Amino acid sequence: MRITAVEVPTRVLVFGMARADGSIAADELYDVADACGQTDDQVRSCLRRLVSEGLLERDGNGRAATYRTTGLGDDLRLGSLRRHELAYRQDRAGQGWDGRWHLAAFAIPEDRRASRDRLRDRLVDAGGAAIGNGLYVTPHGWEDEVRAIAADLDVASHLTLASTDDLEIGGERRPTELARRLWPVDELAASYRRFVADHEHVPPILEGLRKRHDRIADRDFLPGALAMVVAFQQIFLSDPLLPPELLPRPWPGRAARDLLVTSRRQALRLRAEHERPALFAAFDSLITDGA
After folding, report:
1. Is the CA virtual torsion 193, 195, 197, 200 positive or negative?
2. Partners of 102 in the beta sheet?
3. Residues 49-99: tens digit of each pLDDT
């Protein structure tokens, strides 16, 4: 079944075509987009938006152009890879949290409201949860990241950082219960279980193709790969990636990641056009290197 452009955000496809150095060859992008059922006009429109938003820079014109991620674009692209790396590293270790909570507090004047709102958003993006007005917490050591965010927003003088191994909220001190109170742990678990249920048929199908010595053409491989990654990312981007010690066991997020990696590796081995540009090649390098 073909995957339509409505189901798959074009910008996911664009960033998925970025090489390790952040470059994107327009001719390769248009070919892959076509295999995913997206038109040249859709891709051009998306590229124009990404350039205007300061996420990409263009060198050349048309299909001969090369796009490169800017600093802002790299923050998005590499930030996503770092999150995947953290998730797989925690999965492999199965433990390792030192029991410390890391806090960030701020009191920013009303005339700096825009900066204050952006700081809140970015602390949440970094996996933090609000304890109260202007006070956020995470089990991860995020001090360097938070300092960089505050400096970028020019609010570093309003920032306070602290850590503790004795956190109590509303009379609750048990770490797993604090995690449930602060983050949507149960909702995330349900979403990951739905992902597994929706895609657990994929590895057996791919294994059947392997046994029959069949290959997957790009017009089948690329839309399927893109749709599965998009479905996973919709959950993953809202996941604070809490340490295993704070999560229910077994954690379905790990099963979802294992399913994604297994399916991706199987499909890559069956891909007919091995020499052609790969979608999500950076992710493939991550899982090949030991995820």
Report:
1. negative
2. 138, 163
3. 999 999 999 999 999 999 999 988 888 888 878 888 889 888 888 778 999
> Residue 80 is encoded by which pair of tokens?
């996503």
**Pick among 3.40.50.720, 1.10.10.10, 2.30.110.10, 3.30.70.20: CATH of 10-71:** 1.10.10.10
Which residue bears the tokens 């059922």? 37
Give the distance from CA 4 to its chain's centroid: 22
Question: Of 59, 43, 54, 34, whose CA–CA distance to 11 is shortest?
Answer: 43
pTM score over 0.85: no
**CB 195, CB 235: distance < 8 Å:** yes
The architecture in CATH of the region 101-164 reads: 2-Layer Sandwich (3.30)
Closest CA to 27 of 285, 277, 247: 277
